[in-house]
Amino acid sequence: MLNPGDHPEQLSAVAAFAVCDNASATQPALRVRRDPTFSPPVSAQQWVDVAMSCLQRNNVPLERLMSMMEDTSRALVDDEEEGSDSSPPMPTAHHSQHSTTDQTQQDDDDSYCVAGINAECEGGLAPSTTFPTVVGSRRWLAARFLLLGSRLGVQGGTEVSLREAVRLAERAVSAHCCPLTILQLCTACYCLGREVKESGGRSTLEGRVRKLLEYSSGLVMARNMSNPMDAILLAKQAWLSALVGEERRAMEIVKFLLKRCQAEAEVLVLLALLHSASGEHEEASKVAGHAGQMYPLNVLCGVVFTALQNMVDDADHRKQKCVENLLAVLVGRVEAASKEAPQEVSSTSGHAVFPVDDSAMKLFSLDDVWSSGGKHKRLIAGHWALLAHVALLVGCGSIAQLAADAGLEYISGVQGEQKQAYCDLLCSAARVKIDLIEGSFDYFLRQRRFAQNWGAAAQLRGVKDDRYMREQRKLLSHDEVLSLQTMLGKALQVGSHCAEAYLLLGRLDLLVALGPGNVSSTRETHLVSAAHYFQLAIDCSPRLTAAHEGMGRVREEQGAIELSLDSFASAAQFAFGEPIIPYERFLYVVL
User: Where are the residues of the annotated region Disordered (predicted)?
Assistant: First the structure.
């Protein structure tokens, strides 16, 4: 009979299973009692072992896991305060191998420490205590566990988990103020801003992110790339700057990177998007082409290059065929990448990864080490979603449908939640059908105008109108509309702030309102519903051009011409300065 007291050296390993899941503590191979009682972890080393065991299990609730990271961090801090002079506790599998590199990384990052971030920079949320000038090795490791807990909260994606992620990131900054901890705080604040419901909450959080990024990026650039991690930090800071509307700051960081180190694929992709946002589409296409030559297997480079080629080339059948061929190649590339090992994807795609020989960085880089290829799964799911979006952007509905179906099939076959990709793929699948219905509307209107302008064709107009009405009733049948609403409802169940889902519901109601054979009351009801969904989309994403355009069409149909013109003016204003592909579509790469 196994008794924890008889095997003290196995206490941490056994306690890990007890803390993670009491039901799984009884293992036949261990021959333990039916209801064993294990002592909770006591030492810092035991807490670290428990946390590592929890991370490697798939059935630990997110809230419980985040709490475990915070408790482990607290145990490490308490252990240091007791005056322990021993080496910092590390996971037993890596302790002897990486103690030197961890100390080196800690020494490098200590040079970032400052006396504190002033309240103006922190947007009024600065920690009440000043930051230490010298950070002990255990306290630094404690900050890493707080970072890891914050990262888990960001991946949870709910408002509750994101608020907890911000809190843990703030604690990490308090424990060790450096660009790494500030970067995680920026990431958590930005993601929370996408989910908050309070009026003005998003703008407040994004304003905080802007100030923090200005402060931390200045710290990193002042080092002049003397730290190996600076390139990774700056790349993420550049992406976050673009996401919060600081394109000028993002361009400054990108140019700084390109002058001092080899350009990563993600940096070149961001540069191309920044050029497209400023209207320099030829320059953006050149950058994307150069990125494709440097990283021929990188999906991001191929997707951006395809979108830019569709914009800068003259519109003809050959160009459309060329774009379809490029997208078909990308479909095959993502399909092949989905079958590769995570290490192969990281090495061949041009995607920067954290050093594998640094245990402290492993604690921060959750997906690379502790989640069994979670980063690889997120990248593949995100690639499918991005590919489906771009295929719709360039008018290749068949490839968009193929990518959406393949992405949904991939997500259903892998462990772990890919919430954002799932929402995007469902929306892309629904948009393919909605675009088809809108296309039939536009075709009929063109034919009708042609018949009105030519008297010889007037005799055929009645026949064409009857055929059109039959086709429209088929496309907008009750079952088809219900199917699309159900699909978009699933997306909103996963992501309640999915602006595209609300946008597509608005477009669908607008199409039903404009459909043939509707009585006046039914038409008005669907117009009101469409306006409601368009407003929800605007609330979730204030710069969503298509939502403002949809609202303008609704107001036009309702006879409110002035309101319609205001909506169209807002759409034109937001369309100016937008990149060829929204920065938000690349968020899965940044996180």
Answer: 74-109
